[in-house]
Amino acid sequence: xxxxxxxxxxxxxxxxxxxxxxxxxxxxxxxxxxxxxxxxxxxxxxxxxxxxxxxxxxxxxxxxxxxxxxxxxxxxxxxxxxxxxxxxxxxxxxxxxxxxxxxxxxxxxxxxxxxxxxxxxxxxxxxxxxxxxxxxxxxxxxxxxxxxxxxxxxxxxxxxxxxxxxxxxxxxxxxxxxxxxxxxxxxxxxxxxxxxxxxxxxxxxxxxxxxxxxxxxxxxxxxxxxxxxxxxxxxxxxxxxxxxxxxxxxxxxxxxxxxxxxxxxxxxxxxxxxxxxxxxxxxxxxxxxxxxxxxxxxxxxxxxxxxxxxxxxxxxxxxxxxxxxxxxxxxxxxx
Length: 335
Hints:
The protein has 2 domains: 5-231, 3-Layer(aba) Sandwich (Rossmann fold); 242-332, CATH 2.40.50.140. The strands form 4 sheets. It has a 6-stranded mixed β-sheet with strand order 6-7-8-3-9-10, with helices on both faces. A 4-stranded antiparallel β-sheet has the order 2-1-4-5, covered by helices on one side. Strands 15-14-13-16 form a 4-stranded antiparallel β-sheet, with no helix packed on it. Helix content is 25%, strand content 31%. By secondary structure, it is of the alpha+beta class. It is elongated, with a radius of gyration of 24 Å. The chain has helices at residues 43-51, 93-103, 108-121, 137-149, 167-184, 195-201, 219-224, 229-235; strands spanning 5-14, 17-27, 32-36, 58-63, 66-67, 78-81, 155-159, 187-192, 204-209, 212-217, 238-242, 255-259, 273-284, 289-295, 300-305, 320-325, 331-332. It is built from 8 helices and 17 strands.
């Protein structure tokens, strides 16, 4: 069984500072939700409040429409996987996984039987009698996840679970997390500072800044239409630009964004926006060239150019060229 999670005006105040500031959001049953944002934005505090490891200053937390704001972690139907995995170093993998059942009074035979089922689920059965120190980082993560799942939670909470892994293993493990979440049909809420990780995993992404929710929605909707300058800058791949004499934009009076992959070096329509720039850097990025340029008013922008559109003679540092994009590609901020 999976559970919905709803935060209603949920607030956390430390030393008279609101580190989570009256946020409202709902996570649907059986979905994979990522809380996304830079360090200090309030995402981990939000996760700990959902878990019951952090008290709520104001507002409410609902799980399956049940108010759990003042309940203990064990009363909520949630399980948390910590960033450092928090495995007991003196216990075997089997006993680490079974620990929650032991605390609940389940007899040894039954809890070990269930722990072996969890070991099988995360493909770690052959490591049952090893200690955590004998495992790789990815293997420790699987054990920590199995321990979180054994008590059959409605909601699984993950605090930057992939941050300690190397890049290759991180990609492998995020695929396993998504597959497992879909297989079990559970609600996962996952904290990360990586937009790439969030976009790869999430059905719903929630971008936070300074204790507030800047934008929530599907990863695609957020990437295609960031609502604020902060979101456009944080998720990357967007140029945040201000209308000026060097770049007059019809019907746009202030700041807007345009995706780096929507800027071209050739015009495709008489309606295209055209700006004159000086190239200040060029980088080969395997699938494309990254061109960084400067407008006459000093603003910088980047564009991604596929290899077949990259002219090595024209695209050199110091050269002045024109860049183009369709007016339809302009993203106006909502606030």
